[in-house]
Every structure is written in C-alpha cells, then in structure tokens.
Structures
1.
Amino acid sequence: MNDLFRKIAHWTSEKVGSPWAFVVAVLIIVLWAITGPLFHFSDTWQLVINTGTTIITFLMVFLIQNMQNRDARAIHLKLDELIRAIDPARNALIDIEDMEDTELELLQKEFAKFRDQKIAEIKEQRDQA
C-alpha cells in the first residue's frame, strides 16, 4: 500500500507540477467563466467550480505533504551521511531533527556563538589589513 501511494504521489506531483498542468487549470477556469452566461451565473454553476477546486485541493494537500516528508527525510539522511563521513564533525548531530526543542535551542545558541566569533575574526583581519 505504501509503495503504491508513493508511486502515485510521485507521478502526480511530476504531472501537476508541470507548466502544462497550469495551462490546463487556467483553461478549465476560462471555460468555466465562459459558460457563466449560458447558465445565468446560477448557484449550481458556481457550485461546480467550488466543489471541484475543493476536492482537488483536499487531495493535493496529502500528496504535497507526502512528497515534502520524503524530500525532508532524504535531505536529512544525506546530511547525516556527510556528518558521519567528516572526521571532525560531531556525530551527535546525526538525527538532530529528532531532538527536543530545548536541545535544538542550545545547539542554535552554540552555532550563533561560532558565527559571532567568525565575524569578529573577519573584522579583526580586515582592520589589520
């Protein structure tokens, strides 16, 4: 089931993310707007586009979330591999996305200190030059 959903989500995201899908969507809206006078801009005429867009949006939310989750997982795994492969890197940062917020905040403060130190070094080097 998961593999089938993954394949469908991947295929759909490629097709829906294409320029042709956008053109088709615009054409559907234009066609719907043109038919307005034929249906006297009735409630049913408006309901057709509202229902259609709501259903498509509802389904696309799940597909987009699935693709974003897969992309994020792949990026995290690639970064974890880089951390593991580089000798001076801290292996404790592998799977950092699973840390609690307080731990992440501490790391963020630590990296901010590193950044501030580097900026100070650059300014000092520039002043000496």
Note: The two ends are 64 Å apart (CA to CA).
2.
Amino acid sequence: MKNLIEYILIHLVQHPEDVNVVESEDDRGMVFTIHVNQEDIGRVIGKGGSVIQSIRNIGKIRAVKEGIHAYINIDDGDKEENA
C-alpha cells in the first residue's frame, strides 16, 4: 500500500526526491501520512481537493483487497501555532 501511494506521488510532483510516506497504526487502522515538498502540496491536493480524494479512493480499493482499514493524510508542513 505504501509503495502504491509513493508511486502515484512520485509521478505527480515536481520534486519526487522529497516524497516520503510514513506508515503508522492507530486504533482505527493503518495511517499513511504524505510528506512532499512545500511547492508540491497544491499539486497533491488539487483543485477543490480532487487529486487527494482520488488518491484516497485508490487507497481504499487497495485496502479492501488487503483486508485492512487505511487512512491517507497530508502533512502540510510547518504550521505556526500562533497564527
């Protein structure tokens, strides 16, 4: 599953060397957190969230085949807590 997400992202962004998918587990299931270059976040999210929603749909299909619950999140970089 992680390899599939990385494959999609590498071919989507302009800085493929910065693509990193972190796999972790919580009480709901597997969580895949996407880390990309700050310049590529717009490409990953897409207009109105259409691209990330498509990636999540593909992930859900793969998760069903693997018999797991999977969630895909984007780490949007450095957020300032004071802002």
Note: The helical segments are 2-10, 41-45, 50-66.
3.
Amino acid sequence: MGMPADERVWRTLAGEAVDRPPLCLWHHFQPGGSPRALADATVDFFGGFTLDLYKVMPDLPYPDPPAGVGGLELWEALPELGAAAGEPLHPMAEAVAAVRLARPESVVLATVFSPLALALRFARGGPAFARQAAADASAVRRGLATLTRNTAALCRACLQAGADGIYFATAGLGDDLLSEADYRAFGRPTDLEVLAAAAPGRCTVVHLHAARGLNWRLAADYPAAVVSWSDRTTGIPLREVAAALPGRTLMGGIDETGAIVRGDRTALEAELRDAVRQTGGRRLILAGGCSLPDDVNPDHIHLARGLVDDLAG
C-alpha cells in the first residue's frame, strides 16, 4: 500500500525519503458558479485517481471589471472585494471548506491567480497592459493595489477554510507578455505582498506560468516551499532549478501536452523516470507543468498513476 498520501507529501517537502514521489494532475471543471459543484468535482477527480494532493481549481473566477469599463478608466473602477461569508470572493473559500470536510486527511491546495495575471486578463493582454502602464503608471498601480488587497484576502480566507497552502499562479514571466522591467515594476511587488498573506500555509506553491521564454530566476527568491513550471515545454530542466534552489521542492516532470495526452506509455514512463533521475527522487512532486486538456482521456491519467506506483518498486 505504501505510505499515506499526506505523509508522502510532507516528507517530500522536508527533503526526506519517500516510497515514491507524490503525483498531482489536474484540469479545469465547469461548476457553473457553484462552490458545492466545484468541491464535488474536486473530490471525485482527485479521489477517483488517488492523487496525492487535492488542488481546488480557480473555476469560480475572480469577477470581471464593471461592464463597459476599459482603458485607463479600468484601473480606477476595480472594486474592493472581500472574501468573508456573503462577499464576492467567498465562494472559493466555501469550496475549499467543503473539500476539507470531505477529505480531512488530505493535502489541499487552493489555486489563486496573481494580481498581475488578473490585470493582464482585464487589460486584454500584455501589449495593452504595457501601453497603459506607460501612459499612466500611477493609475495602473492603484488598480493593482486593489487587486492585491483582494487577492490577499482570498488567500487568507482559503487558508482559514482549511487549505494547507495556496497554489499561486503567476503570469508575465514568459511568453513575451511583458518586459523584465515591467514585471519588476508591476509583478514582483504585488506577488510578494500576496505571498506574505499566503505565508501561514504549510504548502505554498509558486507556479511560474509560461510555455516559452520563462525568466524563472526573476522569481527564484519568492517565499514558497514548492516551485512549479512547465519544465518540458519551456526546456528549463528540473536539474537546473534543483541546483539553484536546493531547499525547494519542485513540481513538474510531465509534459501536459505530450505523452499523457496521447496515452503513450513508453514516453510517459521515460518522462517520469527522467524526472526522478534529475532530482534524485527527493523534493519532487510529479505533475504536469500546467492543466491537462479538459477532455483528457481518464485512462491516460490512470496510466500515469500506475506508472508512478511502479517507481516504488
């Protein structure tokens, strides 16, 4: 049977020996705005595949800006949003609480997008955001400050609801979305403020989202136990980050667009064993670099689960 999943995760974060690396895979659900539906989908998916962590997806999204507001007016129009009961951001915390109630022994993560990720979405992309930041940096900073306060409140509410940590998903470190200067000006300060709110979590994960051109070193000092990125698609290998950040647990090793989608047993097994070789099997959570396609064949996830079990042999 091996060790319990929660013990496997906590021992991995401590750099201790485990029977096999923990496994976490995910895709998006369609809860229709219902915290209960999101919680049920989470329990069914992660429990059905006996994955080692339960990741509550951001599928009760942060509300869009007021209708019809765009351009520089957008940043002044962003409202303060609370996450307490009855407030706009509470449904995510409600879903976390329901997952915790259903799985009291499991490691539960709440997925939260960074303030800059939200800002890039609201501005409709990196170039538009950069233009607005160049036109009126003060207005953009005020809007980001609002997003940051709201996101920090959401992190605190999710931790209070029972999450063991925040899976903090950044944007803007790659994919040619922003210059390094703009990320330093608008991304790092807001990231660090939210991560301070997430600090009480035992398993904070920083996800450096990009498919190419990832400047991971710009976030190398972020305070988090776990670093996640698409190591296969970006070409930044696990061994490189492990050497630079020896005290961190790494999350990756599986190409979320590759063998697991095709159901290619040989290639998937090679990915898993290569990830273990690169890290020595310590401080490693096997995972996709990002979400699997929503229509991924469940048999392929079962395949990955069985192959990971084989690593214990």
Note: Residues 5-310 form a domain with the TIM Barrel fold (CATH 3.20.20.210).
4.
Amino acid sequence: MRQRSVPAATGGGRRGSASVMAILVLTLLSALVGSQMRRVLLERRQMRSELAYTQALQLANAGLLRATEQHRRNHGYSGETWNFPAGEIHKTNSADVMIKVTSEHECVVTARYPANSDTPFQVTRRKRLQQ
C-alpha cells in the first residue's frame, strides 16, 4: 500500500498574523490607558495645588480682616502669629499666618499653606490701616 502525502495546513499563517494583530491592539490600548492615567494624575496634582493656593490666599485675607478689626479697637496693636496644626484646617496640612503692623500703620500679613510641606504656598497681603 502506498501512503498518501497530506498537504500542509495553510491556516497556521492566519493564526499567527491574528496573534500579532491582537498583541498590537493590546499594546496600543495599554499605551492609551497609560496616557490617560498620567493626564488624570497631572490634573489631580494641579487641582490640589490650586486648592492649597486658594487656602493660603483666604488665610492672608482673614489675617487682614483680623488686623483691621484689632487696630480699630486698639491703635497699639502690633500683630500676632497664628499657627494651625494639622487637623484644624486639613487632616494632614498645617498653616501659619503672621500679622505685623508697623509704626506707620501699615499691615503686612503673610500666610503659608501647607506649612508642613517642603514647598508651601506663601501669600503676602499689605494694607494701610486708618489712624
């Protein structure tokens, strides 16, 4: 009896190219997801920075209001320092507000937030107080 030769299967090349395409699509999707994650993290960091700056600005404005009221009540008021430990404004961030009134009745308020950070936002406000 003679053996017949069976022709080689031709579907193997198609399966190989389908696998390559699947790998390419997965690689592309992974790159897109990674890019989106970086963008979301960058936006989150930016939002936190804007929030910290706004908090420092509001603390400086509050210091000006306090100085104006204290000076109105007592022209000898020369200033004060507020220290907010972590937990009073935010659970992990602290703040410092320094109020100084000069002999020329100029008020200088400097607020730092978060004060326990390596790079806190610092806002300084000045105002001439009425004599």
Note: The longest helix spans residues 12-73.
